[in-house]
Amino acid sequence: MRRKSGNIILFIFILMIFVSQSFAEQLYKAAVVNSQRALQNSKEGKKAIALLQEKEQKINSKLANMDKKIQDLDTKLKTQRLILTFEAQENLSFDLDNLRTERKRIAEDSLKEWQRLQLQLYTKIREEVSPIIDNIAKEKGYSLIFDLASNTVVYFSLSVDITDEVIKRYDASKVMKNNNPFNF
Predict the structure, then answer these.
(1) What mean pLDDT comes out for the span 6-22?
(2) Residue 51 in 3-state DSSP?
(3) Residue 158 gets which letter from DSSP?
């Protein structure tokens, strides 16, 4: 009789371990998303990146033109120093200093403008992707979704990466809404 009760207790103990383990697995279902990859691979993210690159090219072109003017003026001052009057040299030096100061201001202002645009575009995309991630979490019963771009994950299985599904749904949501995604 004691042997039977001991076996029953052991069986119940093992059953509790398996039940509690499967219960814990159901409670804590996790997934990962790589927001950086979603940004780079989604249609809207690619548009935002292209817009930022275009803006950067315009800024660089403007600064290159100013650099050329500065270089030309500096060369003129150096090569004609012996034939220019003192007053003409002073005027060229003054113009050169003003041009360098203007270039520095344009570079600083352009950088701030570019960063503002980047923040605006990325914030808009993040706000549009957030409910999609929430819906996926609810549909699939995920308790946690980690963003790999923030480097907060220490272990994960690739089978729980939902980035491709986020990209697909985000792209699909934009096709359904309209063709002009950046209405600010």
Answers:
(1) 52
(2) helix
(3) G
